[in-house]
Amino acid sequence: MIAGLPQADQSLFQKPDLFTLFTLIIGYRQHLRVVGTSMEKTLKEGDLVTYKKLNPKNIDLEIGDIVVAYHPKTKNKLIIKRIHRIYQNKFDLRGDNSLASTDSRELGLIELDLIIGKVDKIFSN
After folding, report:
1. Are 48 and 24 in contact (CB under 8 A)?
2. CB count, 10 Å around CB of 116?
3. Pick from 71, 73, 22, 74: which is nearest to 50 by CA?
4. CB-based contacts of 107: which residues, under 8 Å, 6+ apart?
5. What is the spatial distance between Cα 29 and Cα 3, in angstroms, rounded to a whole number?
6. 4 secondary structure, DSSP code
7. pLDDT averaged per 10 residues, the chain (length 125)
């Protein structure tokens, strides 16, 4: 755990319910399987997360939120990181496991248009 960063919101950890399954089916939510250890202890390899796509008219992001973004260099790969700091339309995204994370410390600030969603539920493996 990194000192000074918000802890994982325990309300994110939920069992699948009918509403979640319905919103996945109709495409309101997207899901990803976690690969790697950069977000341990919050997310472990194999966990399933669902995320809501960002609404361009109502960007609701705060420090501590976990987001899904396109990798700024390859743009064909997705990354899951926590918002560490916000600078207007640029974000300092960090992994919770700083020793195993490739994040804004190496990649630089991430532009808002690369962030595609905000994680809202985590289903532990």
Report:
1. no
2. 15
3. 22
4. 71, 72, 73, 93
5. 31
6. T
7. 52 71 75 94 93 86 96 92 95 96 96 95 87
